[in-house]
Write a structure and sequence with these properties.
Elements: H1 2-11, H2 15-37, H3 39-66, E1 108-110, E2 120-123, E3 139-140
Antiparallel strand pairs: 1-2, 2-3
């Protein structure tokens, strides 16, 4: 009977052993978590660049059909709804709603060229304002 009791008490972990394991896990988490968390900004910037590329493709198709890019006033909504002053529109050019940038803002569209010859699509980043650095830096189609 005494031998049986010694075997049972030996199977359990001591408090010190548990604390050592918890300490090791905490150290590993402290080393790994900052690296993983730092990647979310990179992923959001990559998604914004992909969205801008997709929108650029839709705008290219719009130009093929209409011989010009949408005006600044018509904006990206011209890809979903026909502007009143445009002939040849064969949209909608996107079956889904137009995407928002990864930070929840709308992509800015500007057609600075004369006669609809050029465009710029911009995501203003995490601060949703022009300029900035890091995650707050602008991402454009230029």
């Amino acid at each position: 009977m005494k031998i049986m009791r010694n075997l049972r008490s030996r199977r359990a972990f001591t408090l010190i052993e548990l604390l050592v394991v918890i300490l090791i896990l905490a150290i590993l988490a402290a080393l790994i978590v900052p690296r993983v968390v730092g990647r979310t900004g990179d992923a959001k910037r990559a998604k914004a660049a992909t969205d801008i590329s997709t929108l650029t493709g839709m705008l290219q198709q719009y130009r093929v059909d209409c011989d010009q890019y949408p005006s600044t006033e018509d904006g990206l909504m011209a890809l979903r709804q026909q502007p009143s002053n445009v002939n040849g529109w064969r949209g909608p050019y996107s079956q889904k709603e137009l995407p928002q940038d990864p930070w929840g803002g709308d992509y800015a569209y500007e057609a600075p060229g004369a006669n609809g010859e050029d465009f710029i699509i911009t995501s203003y980043g995490s601060d949703m304002a022009p300029g900035g650095e890091g995650d707050a830096a602008d991402i454009t189609s230029e």
